[in-house]
């Protein structure tokens, strides 16, 4: 009976998301870029990693808030003045992102995954609700890679950093603070974590 119930659960399609922003919270501050890469799919038979470069999304957005923190801009290297002129309108970008998520996750439930997820999810969910009124992930379709590692490694969450993880779990790609580069890098980390038996 239980086995039959498990098999009826819809698969999950994990999408690694990274954002760059010009401050600590959405609203007064803006999400300036959004990168996403399909990490893999999980069903009752297990997890299957995807090629993280095969299905990706990237947009640079026009700032929607009036404030910014210069140090936050320095991290990403994005030019806020350029984006005020050339950036995509947030509503259009978020509608395109929603359509992309629905396309790549056909037959499965999309789950956003991030490292750490809290900051990226806060901006992503706020932008989706503010500019489209809905989220393809629902209100809680989010998985934090730091928490996943802490649970498998049986260590306190606040002790987790990439430098404390076994080298074999990490992507060989550089963390560049370009949203798409980092989404792809983190998709590889996620797949490695999903295949890791833990401590």
Strand tally, please?
6
What's the end-to-end separation, in Å? 32 Å
Helix content: 25-40%
* Radius of gyration, taken over Cα atoms and rounded to an integer in Å: 17 Å
Question: What's the overall average pLDDT, rounded?
Answer: 94
* Fraction of residues in β-strands: 15-25%
The number of helices is: 7
Uncertain stretches: none
Order of helix and strand elements from N to C terminus:
HEEEEHHHEHEHH
The computed structural class is alpha/beta
Largest sheet: number of strands, sense, barrel closure: 6 strands, mixed
Shape: globular
Keywords: Exonuclease, Hydrolase, Nuclease
GO molecular function: exonuclease activity
Pfam families: Rv2179c-like (PF16473)
Domain 3'-5' exoribonuclease Rv2179c-like: 91-193
Polypeptide structure, described:
InterPro entries: RNaseH-like_sf (IPR012337), RNaseH_sf (IPR036397), Rv2179c-like (IPR033390). Keywords: Exonuclease, Hydrolase, Nuclease. By secondary structure, this protein is an alpha/beta fold. Helix content is 38%, strand content 21%. Strands 1, 2, 3, 4, 5 and 6 form a 6-stranded mixed β-sheet that branches. A hairpin with a 2-residue loop joins strand 2 and strand 3 (46-49). Helix 4 crosses helix 5 (117-131). The chain starts with a helix and ends with a helix. The mean pLDDT is 94.
How are the secondary structure elements laid out?
Layout: H1 2-7, E1 12-21, E2 31-43, E3 46-49, E4 56-60, H2 70-76, H3 80-86, H4 90-104, E5 109-114, H5 117-131, E6 142-144, H6 145-153, H7 179-195
């Amino acid at each position: 009976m239980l086995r039959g119930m498990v098999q009826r659960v819809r698969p999950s399609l994990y999408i690694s998301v990274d954002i760059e922003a010009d401050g600590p919270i959405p609203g007064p501050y803006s999400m300036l870029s959004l990168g996403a890469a399909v990490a893999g799919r999980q069903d009752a038979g297990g997890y299957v990693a995807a090629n993280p470069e095969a299905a990706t999304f990237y947009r640079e957005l026009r700032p929607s808030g009036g404030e910014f923190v210069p140090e936050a801009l320095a991290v990403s290297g994005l030019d806020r003045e350029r984006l005020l002129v050339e950036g995509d309108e947030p509503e259009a970008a978020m509608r395109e992102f929603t359509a992309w998520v629905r396309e790549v996750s056909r037959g499965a439930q999309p789950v956003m995954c991030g490292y750490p997820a809290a900051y990226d999810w806060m901006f992503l969910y706020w932008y989706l609700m503010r500019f489209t009124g809905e989220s393809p992930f629902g209100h809680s379709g989010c998985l934090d890679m730091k928490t996943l590692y802490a649970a498998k490694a049986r260590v306190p969450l606040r002790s987790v950093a990439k430098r404390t993880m076994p080298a074999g779990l990490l992507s060989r790609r550089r963390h560049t603070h370009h949203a798409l580069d980092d989404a792809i890098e983190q998709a590889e980390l996620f797949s490695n974590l999903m295949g890791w038996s833990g401590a």
